[in-house]
Write a structure and sequence with these properties.
This protein has 333 residues and is an alpha+beta fold. Among the domains are: 34 residues; 92 residues, Sandwich (Immunoglobulin-like); 80 residues, no CATH class; 25 residues. The protein is built from four helices and 16 strands. It has a seven-stranded antiparallel β-sheet with strand order 10-11-12-13-14-15-16, with no helix packed on it. Strands 2, 4, 5, 7, 8 and 9 form a six-stranded mixed β-sheet that branches. The longest helix has 46 residues. It is rod-shaped, with a radius of gyration of 53 Å. Bound molecules: calcium ion (4 copies). The site of one calcium ion has 10 residues, from loops.
């Protein structure tokens, strides 16, 4: 049995424990309310900033900014510009250029701003351009997904008019504009076939219209376009070829019949035998083709006139109208 004194002590102790428990509960309640307020404020802030495209949402470490906007192809040593948009004033942004280089942190002081950065790559390759966001409140984001930028080797690296593959096939340097295959007419097709047979050479090296093969058969220079003149006569293409280099075409080549005839010069005009019958059909002079007109036969006319005069004189002599001497008559007295 407990004494009265003991009962009073236990009752007092129970009362004290109850007070202590009440006190702890109130502290916990206050702490919970404070935490609730802090979380409410935190998530309100997160919700507010989460409206922006490039600003963190809950779980900042998992935030991925949008990739930068800009060209996905380009050339070396040329500035390429990349942009991100943000309404997060007071934020910072950094670009990763994919070649081990990074931009500085770029501060955005106003909302609804764009951040633009230019970069030029010095080597050909494929680069992953990313962007990263930094907030003074919640730290750095992870890198954005990459924008793939291809800085491809141009087909004609040195810009000499011959593509890299062709130059390589001809043993020329694709990175030297002064080293390229022989191409007499400069039309981009080299004179000869490539050694490996992957490229066919020009069939008309001097681009005068007459193929190398025909020029060689006519003894014409297939590397000189000044010795062939193209003529169109009665809808047929002819080539007037100067094989003796005297400035006048001495062979007329008919592309339709693939035959050749000779020419002649009369009064400075080149006479052409288009039918191949040995008679002149046209003349060519100063770029003009005309039907052949035989020259007036002055020589024959003059000879005929002289002969006619001689015959008339002879007849007159015969008739006694003209005579060479006068007979003397002696009158006897
Ligand atoms: Ca080239
Ligand atoms: Ca070259
Ligand atoms: Ca050529
Ligand atoms: Ca030719």
């Amino acid at each position: 049995m407990l004494s009265d004194g003991m009962r009073r002590m236990l009752k007092k102790a129970g009362s004290l424990q109850k007070n202590i428990l009440d006190l702890d509960f109130n502290r916990l309640k206050s702490a919970f309310i404070v935490l609730l307020i802090i979380f409410t404020l935190f998530f309100s802030l997160i919700s507010f900033f989460g409206c922006n495209n490039n600003i963190a949402v809950a779980g900042y470490s998992g935030y991925i900014p949008s990739p930068p906007i800009g060209n996905s192809t380009g050339d070396i040593n040329i500035d390429h510009t990349y942009i991100i948009y943000t309404s997060d004033s007071g934020s910072y942004w950094m670009f990763d250029w994919g070649d081990g280089s990074f931009s500085d942190w770029i501060e955005v002081k106003v909302s609804d701003a764009s951040v633009s950065q230019s970069y030029s790559w010095s080597s050909y390759g494929i680069y992953e351009v990313r962007v990263r966001h930094r907030s003074s409140y919640i730290g750095d984001s992870t890198w954005s997904d990459p924008l793939i930028v291809t800085i491809a080797i141009p087909p004609d690296l040195d810009g000499d008019g011959y593509n890299n593959d062709l130059e390589a096939a001809y043993g020329k340097n694709p990175d030297d504009p002064d080293d390229y295959p022989l191409d007499t007419d400069g039309d981009g097709t080299p004179d000869d076939d490539s050694a490996d047979g992957s490229f066919t050479g020009d069939l008309d090296d001097d681009n005068d219209g007459l193929s190398d093969t025909i020029e060689e058969s006519l003894s014409s220079n297939s590397l000189d376009d000044s010795d062939v003149t193209t003529l169109v006569i009665e809808q047929t293409i002819y080539y007037l070829v100067d094989t003796d280099d005297d400035g006048n075409g001495n062979i007329l080549y008919n592309t339709q019949t693939e035959t050749q005839t000779n020419t002649n010069i009369e009064d400075g005009k080149i006479c052409l035998d288009t039918f191949g019958d040995g008679l002149w059909d046209y003349t060519f002079q100063n770029g003009i083709v005309e039907s052949y007109k035989a020259p007036f036969p002055w020589l024959y006319v003059i000879i005929a006139v002289i002969l006619t005069v001689v015959i008339i004189l002879l007849l007159l002599f015969k008739m006694g109208v003209f005579y060479l001497y006068e007979e003397e008559y002696v009158v006897e007295e």
